[in-house]
Amino acid sequence: MVHGTARAGWLGALLLTATGVARAQIAGGETWYEPTRVGAPLVLFLVFSILVLVFIDRSRKGAQLFIRRIAGINAIEEAVGRATELGKKVLYLTGAGSLEEIQTIASLAVLRHVGSLTARYAVDLDVPCKDPLAFTAARETVQEAYMQAGRPDLHTSDIVHYVTYDQFAYTASVTGLMVREKPAANFLIGQFHAESLLLAETGQATGAIQIAGTAEITQLPFFAVVCDYTLMGEELFAAGAYLSREPAMLGSIKGQDITKAMLIVYMLIGILLQIFGVHALKDFMSINGS
Amino acid sequence: MNLERLVHIDRRIIYLLIALGTTIPLLLPIGLPVSSTPPVERLFDKIEGLGQQEVVLVSFDYGPTTAPENNPMAQATLRHCFTRGVKVVVVALFPIGGVTMAGEILEGVAGEYPDLEYGVDYAFLGYKDGAQAAMKQMMGNAFAEVFPQDFFGTDTNQLPLMRRVVNHEQIALVVSFSTNIIGEWWANLVNAQYGTPVAVGTTAVSAPKYYAFLDSGQMLGLLGGLKGASEYEQLLIDAHPELMTIYQQAGIYTAMKGMDAQTVDHAIIMLFIIFGNTVYFLVQRRDARRKQHQA
Amino acid sequence: MFWKLRLPLLLTLFVGAVPIVTFFLTEHTPVIGPAVPFVRDRVESYMVIIAGFALLLGVVSVVQGSIRKIERRRPGWPFAISLLTGLLVMGAFGILSAMRVGPFQGLLTAPDGSDTPFYWMTRNMFNPLQAAMFSLLAFYIASAAFRAFRVRNVEATILLAAAFVVMLGRTPLGEYVFSWLPGGERWLPQVTDWIMAVPNAAAQRGIIIGAALGAASLSLRVILGIERSYLGVKE
C-alpha cells in the first residue's frame, strides 16, 4: 500500500511540476517557475525519475537485471570472518555526516548487513558515532539487525555509542580505540573529511583489514591508497541494493545507469557539435548563461 | 644488507624526518622565491581593478583546524582590499570557529590601517547558521534580513556602508575562505543564480575539486592551499612594496614562510619514495635471481 | 506498524517530495506560492533544532558509557575520567557563560576585552589540541606515500609520475628544476596546473556525476519508501 501511495504521489508531483511549468506565464511578467531551474534541471529530473520508476516496475515484474560485481561489498563477509577467526572486534564508522546526508543513509544500509553478520558469527561490533542523529538511527539499525539474525541476546546498548560532535576529538577517540583494542576489521563507510587519512592510516598500522566507502572526492584518494577495498561514489550508494538484492532497489540502480549512459552520449554529441561551432547542447545545459 | 627491513622501514623514522623538516625551516627561514599561477593572478587582478567605492563580500567559512592555510590568504586579501580602498563586508558561515577566525583576522588586519573607519570602510556582520539558506537570503533579498545586527550588536541599517549594500547588486566580488563545501555553495548558488563573481581560497586537499568550477567559469579565481596563499602574498608585495615591512616582521606567520617548510617536507617525501622504489627494485631483482638459481 | 513504519514512510514521502517540487516554483505559483519561500529557506534550519534534541541523547550515552567503563575498570578507564571531566567543565563553563553568571561574562571576550574562562579554554586548550590532531596528517601522508607509491604496474607508475610532478610543481623547488633553461622556471608549475585542471578535473567531474546520480537514486528510494534501513525496520 505504501509503495503504491508513494508512486502515485510521486507521479502526481511530477505531473504538478510539469503542468505548473507548462502554464507558467501570468500577467505582469511574473512566472510560476524559476527560470534558471526550468530547462536542463527539470528535464534531467523528469527523465531520471521516469527511468527509475520504469525499471523498478520491470524489476518487480520479474525482469532479470545484471549488476556488476563490486569487490568491496563482496569482501564484507570475508572481513567479518577474519575478525571471527582472530577473536577480535569489528569496528564500524558511519562517518561525519548527519542523517540528512545521503551517504550516512547508505552507510546505515551497509551497517545493517554488517550487524547481521556479526550477530550470526557472534563477534563483537563497535560503532562509535560522531553525529547524534546518525547515532540514534544506527542504534535502531543494529538492534533490528541482531533481532532479525535471531541473536537479540548478543545485542548490548554499548555496541553503538556516541563519542562527540567535534571532528578531531572524534578522530582522537577512534584512533585511540583502534590502537588499544586492535579491531581485526575496520569499516569506514559514509561521509568523511580531513580525518579520513588519520583513521585509515591508524587502522592500517594496527593490521586491520579495511573497507572504506565514501562519495567525498577529496577523501577518495586517501582511502584508495590506504584501505584494502574502497567503494567509490555511486558504489557506496548501490551497496544497500547490492546486498539486499531486492528487485525494486536493483531497478533503481538500472534506471540510474541508463541515465548516466544517456548523459555520456549527450556529452559526446555535445563535444562534437562544439567542435563544429554548434552550441545548442551546451547552452541547454548552462545555468544563468555560465 | 637486510632489504626487507629497508622496505618496511619503521614509520617513526619518517615521522622524525618530517618533524625536523617542518620545524627547522620555520625557525630558520630559507626565503625561497614564489611565482604566481593564473587562478591566483585572476583574483588578484580583479581586486586590483576594483574602484574605491566597490564592495567585496568576504566570507570566513573555516575554523581553527585549517587556520595555518586559510589565515594567510584571508589576511592577504583583506590587506589588498584595504590598501586599494575597496570596501569590505565580512560574514562567517562556518559553525565551529568561523566567527572567531573572522573576528581575529579582521581585528588584526584593520589595526594595520589606522585611517579605516568601522561601518564606513568595512563591516563585520557575524555568524549565521544554515549556510545555503543564509547565502540565498542575503544575496537574493537583503543582508539586513539575515543580519539585522552586526557582530557588535549595532543595527545593520545604522552602518553607513550597509545602508547602501542591500544585496548582490551592490557586491562586486565574493571571496570565500573555506575548508570544504561552503566555497562550492558560493559558486553553485550565488554565481549561478545572481552572476556575482566568486573566488575561493581553500585548503590544498580541497583545491583539486574546485578546478572544475574554475574551468566552467563559475569561479573567478582560486587560492589553493599554502602555495596559493604564498602566491597572493608575493603578488601583493610586488604591487604594493610598502607591505613588505609587515611580511618581513619576525615572529609573524606568513604563507611564504610556511612554503619553506612545505618545500622541505615535499623533498623529504620524494626522497623517501625514490628510496622505497630503489629498495623495492633491489628486492625484485634479488628474488628473480634466486628463482633462476633454483631453476 | 502504523507508528513505526507507515507514518514515518508517509512523512518521508511528503517531506522529501515537497522541497523537490518547490525547487522549480516561485512564490507566484497559485495556491502553494506563499509556502514556497518557507519550504526553500526555513525548513532546512529546523534540522538544527532536531539535532539539538538528538545531541542530548548522545550526551546521555557518553556519560552512561563512561561511568560503566570506570565502574568495571575496563581497559582505558582513566580516559573515561578525563572525558567526563572535560565534558562537565566545558559544559558548565559554556552554560554559565551564556547565562553571564559571576566571572563568566559571555562566550568570547568580556566587556573589558579580556578572555572569558570559556574562551580562554577554547583558545588555549581546545584549538591547540585540534591543530595538533590536524597536523598529524602531514606525518601520515608521508608514511602513506612511502608505502603506496611503488612502481608495481603501469597505472602505479603514472600515479607516481603525476605525484612527483605535482609535489615539485606546488613548491618553489619546481621552479629551480628547469630554471637553467630560458623560461624553464614556469614549466613545472604550468604542467602541474595542467594536471590539476585537465585530467584531475575530468576524473573528479566523472566521479561527481556518478556519485550525484547514485545519491539521487538512493534519495528516490528513500522518498518512495523502498530503502528503509535508516528506520531500523525491514517490513
Question: Could you tell me the mean pLDDT of chain C?
Answer: 84
Percent in helix of chain B: 55-70%
How many domains make up the coordinates of chain C?
2
H/E series of chain B: HHHEHEHEHHHEHEHEHHH
Number of helices of chain B: 13
Helicity range of chain C: over 70%
The overall number of domains of chain B is 2
Regions with little confidence, pLDDT below 50 for 5+ residues of chain B: none
Distance between the termini of chain B: 24 Å
Pair with the biggest interface: A-C, 99 and 71 residues
CATH architectural category of the largest domain in chain B:
3-Layer(aba) Sandwich
By CATH, the topology of the largest domain in chain B is Rossmann fold
Explain what you see.
The complex is a heterotrimer of chains A (290), B (295) and C (235). Chain A is of the alpha/beta class and 290 residues long. Chain A folds into two domains: 2-64 and 248-285, no CATH class; 71-243, Rossmann fold (3-Layer(aba) Sandwich), CATH 3.40.50. Chain A is 60% helix and 11% strand. Chain A has a six-stranded parallel β-sheet, sandwiched between helices. In chain A, helix 4 (102-121) links the parallel strand 1 (90-95) and strand 2. The model of chain A has no long low-confidence stretch (mean pLDDT 87). Chain B is elongated. The mean pLDDT of chain B is 90. In chain B, helix 4 runs parallel beside helix 11 and helix 11 packs antiparallel against helix 13. Helix content of chain B is 56%, strand content 12%. With 295 residues, chain B is an alpha/beta fold. Chain B has helices at 3-7, 11-27, 38-48, 67-84, 98-110, 131-140, 143-146, 160-164, 181-194, 207-216, 225-239, 244-247, 255-294, and strands at 55-61, 87-92, 122-127, 171-178, 198-202, 221-224. Chain C is mainly α. The model of chain C has no long low-confidence stretch (mean pLDDT 84). Chain C has helices at 2-23, 35-41, 43-71, 77-99, 117-148, 154-169, 173-177, 187-223. Chain C has eight helices and no strands. In chain C, helix 1 packs across helix 2 (35-41), helix 3 (43-71) crosses helix 4 and helix 6 crosses helix 8 (187-223). Chain C folds into two domains: 42-148, no CATH class; 150-235, no CATH class. Chains in contact: A-B, A-C, B-C. The interface between B and C is large, with 55 and 46 residues.
